[in-house]
Structure formats: structure tokens, C-alpha cells
Amino acid sequence: MKCDLHIHTLHSGMCTVPVARNFCRECYTVPQEAYEKLKRMGMDLVTVTDHDSIDAVEDLRHYADFFVSEEVTCHLPSGHEAHIAVYDISDRQHIEVQRRRDDLSSLLAYLSEQDLLFSVNHLFSGLTGQRSEEDYEWFESSFSHMESLNGAIVGRANELAVQYAGYFRKTGLGGSDAHTVAAVGSAYTMVRGARNKQEYLDGIRQGHAVALGSSGGYLRLTRDVLLICKEMMRSKPWTLALSPLLLGVPVVLFVNYWSEVAFAERWFGRATGRKGVALGNASVPGEASL
Questions:
Q1: Taking a C-beta distance cutoff of 8 angstroms, is the pair 25, 14 a contact?
Q2: Section 170-174 average pLDDT
Q3: What is the DSSP-derived secondary structure letter of residue 170?
Q4: CA–CA separation, 173 and 30 (whole Å)
Q5: So what's the pLDDT on residue 273?
Q6: Could you give the C-alpha distances from 194 to 2, 88, 189, 290, in angstroms and in order?
Q7: Please, what's the b/e burial string for 47-77 (b: 16 or more CB within 10 A of its CB; e: otherwise)?
Q8: How far is CA 45 from CA 18, 40, 132, 152, 185, in A?
Q9: What's the mean pLDDT when you consider all of the chain?
Q10: Rounded CA separation 235/219 (Å)
Q11: What is the pTM of this model?
Q12: Listing from the earlier edge strand, what are the strands of the sheet with 209-213?
């Protein structure tokens, strides 16, 4: 069975870019659109991992192949942020997860108590800000599952995530991290032999997951940012006045691309240097052109 384990919809809230956060959403995808695209892409199961929200459930609850998940914005002891995907949760569990997300130890204790499946996402990307060696010590000691193929970030970050997960014997997961309909289903997680949701999730727990699909890249990210801007201007016509600024998007994202590569290599080296993990090239799907 296949499932894209990292998907966003309009319920992920506003974007985090300064100033733009006042009027631009993180994502404009309607849950039903995401569901239909995922089924066209051959996904057997569907979930949505909006930021700190499970509101998409109201649109998709009636589908037998849908299960509720979320991407939790968690504060680490260092003060830095991490994104933790929590899968197949109830409304009550969502409320408790949100209550505990500013205290990592408390959150981890609750996830274990409830026997919930969870993973840390894009651990070698600067999407959530700064990192410290202490952060990676938490990832190593407290997470048995890690996102090793994210369809929205640079291929090098995924390569290093694969190496990190392999060295520490973690199970790697795949998801598109789609913020547009176009990106939905570009990466996913397969569990061979699973026949239903429970067998699929059990297979992941037992380490039988295979991350498939493609990494993100400069062209895909540029496309997605422009598509988000298009939807922003459609929903708020006054933002059309900002359209000349779009000319600078390719330049900004080109600089961001190489910054992400440098971030990934720097923190892989610092997180593993004392443990003798060599910086090399893992066998992961390459970056997509679009």
C-alpha cells in the first residue's frame, strides 16, 4: 500500500514569511482537491498533515481510506523548532498534542503513552530555523522514524537524511510536503503486503517502510511559490499590486537553494562528526525538474 505521509491544505494557516504572513496562506489547496489528486496518483490511503490543525477532517472523514494526522510545530529544549508528524490521531489526542507541543519531553511521553506513530520531518533543512548539536541528540535518542524523502526540499538534504537514518537504524519515511495541488503525491511511503490502514501503519512501525518518489529542487520550489502567489492574488485581488515583486522570486529561491545545501552538509557534519559517519552520497531519488 502507498500513502503520501506529508500533505498540506488551506488549513495549515498563514505563511511564515515576514510581512506576507499577514495576507498569504501557507497553502491554498482544498482538502477534496488533495484527496482526488492523491487517488489519481495511485495512493491507497490518504492522510493530511496540516500545521497544528486537523480541520481537514471535516471534508474527508467520510472516506474509508482516509486517516487523520498533523504536523506539530514543537519547541525543543534548545529553543529551536522542529516539525513532528503524528499519524492516525483522534480529536482528543490532537487537543492534548497541541497542549504539550512547547515541551518536547512531555509531548514524547504522551505520544509513547498513546502508542502513536510519529516522525521528525526535514531534519536537514533550514525550514524551521536554526539547529544545534543538542537537537540532533534528541532526534537520535527519541525518534525511531524520520522523514528521509521530502518532495519539497533539495535532494542533498534527503541524501543526508537517508544516511543519518541508516546509520542510527531509523525507519525512513517519504512524503511530498505538498503546498500546491501540483506537488501532491510526488513522494510517498510504501509498505509492501499491507492490505488495510492498520497493516500499513504496523508495517511502518516494524521498519518495513520504503520511501519512494522524487526530491524537491529549484524548479519545483519556484513553480510552487509562484502557484501560491497566484492563489493569493486570486483570493485577495489587492495583492495584484505586489506582482512586480514576483520577478525577484527566482533569484531569491536560487540563493535559498544553495543555502539549503550548505545547511544540510554543515549540520550533518556536526550531528555525526563525533560518531564517525562519513559524508557521502546516498542512493535516493533525484530532484524533479518540476
A1: yes
A2: 98
A3: P
A4: 24
A5: 80
A6: 9, 16, 12, 30
A7: bbbbbbbbbbbebbeeeebbbbbbbbbbebe
A8: 35, 12, 35, 20, 11
A9: 95
A10: 25
A11: 0.93
A12: 2-3, 187-191, 209-213
Nearest to 26 by CA among 185, 224, 253: 224
Distance CA 287, CA 9 (A): 23
Q: How far, in Å, are 78, 125, 164, 232, 236 from residue 130 at the CA level?
A: 10, 9, 18, 28, 32
Spans of all domains in the chain: 2-275
Angle between helices 104-113 and 91-100 (to 10 degrees): 160
All cell numbers assigned to 162 = 537517508
d(CA 49, CA 24): 19
Tens of pLDDT along 200-238? Answer: 999 999 999 999 999 999 999 999 999 999 999 999 999
- Residue 115 is which amino acid? D
For 236-260, letters b (16+ CB in 10 Å) and e give eeebeeeeeeeeeeeeebeebbeeb
Cβ(50)–Cβ(56) under 8 Å?
A: yes
Phi, psi values for residue 23, rounded to 5°: -145, -5
The Cα 225–Cα 179 span in angstroms is 9
Q: How far is CA 12 from CA 52, 71, 193, 215, 222, in A?
A: 7, 9, 32, 22, 20
Provide the 8-state DSSP code for 62: T
Let me know the angle formed at the C-alpha of 81 by 105 and 9, rounded to the nearest 5 degrees.
Answer: 110
Are residues 59 and 31 in contact, defined by beta-carbon separation less than 8 angstroms? yes
For 153, the grid coordinates are 526540499
CATH number of 2-275: 3.20.20.140
DSSP H/E element including 35 = helix 31-40
Q: What is the pLDDT of residues 70-105, one digit of tens each?
A: 999 999 999 999 999 999 999 999 999 999 999 999
